[in-house]
Amino acid sequence: MSQPLDISYLPFANLLGIELVEASPDRVVAKLEVRKELCTVPDILHGGAIMSFADTVGAVATVLNLKGGATTTTVESKTNFLAPIPLGDTAVATCEPFHKGGRLMVWQTKITRGDGRLCAVVTQSQMVLEPKKA
User: Fold this and answer.
1) Element counts in the chain: helices (H) and strands (E)
2) Using one digit for the tens of pLDDT, what is the confidence trace for 18-57?
3) Which class is 11-129 in CATH?
4) What angle do CA 48, 63, 89 make, to 5 degrees?
């Protein structure tokens, strides 16, 4: 079942301009318009912006699987950059699980550009943080 697509509660995601397209416990899809302030020279999406985009999408995927007031934090992330994403294009992130455990979840996010070319693959591990007992 798809979840609400509102991520306005995530200030950094709003700063980047991330828009959720699809969100379920087994798949999150988001897009990011490549604008000048997110680019490096020569007008291609900065690697840090790509990594932040993927990290946000992986965290959203984890949150959709949490129970009982648990939260999450990224504990590891690896990015393979395969092709540039130019200014004016749209980056699309598709995140799916490798492993969904009670204490650790591992996600793979594929980043493509408007022509469908695969531009980056990100694997990240998210720790599940149980709420503190009073």
Assistant:
1) 2, 8
2) 999 999 999 999 999 999 999 999 999 999 999 999 999 9
3) alpha beta
4) 35
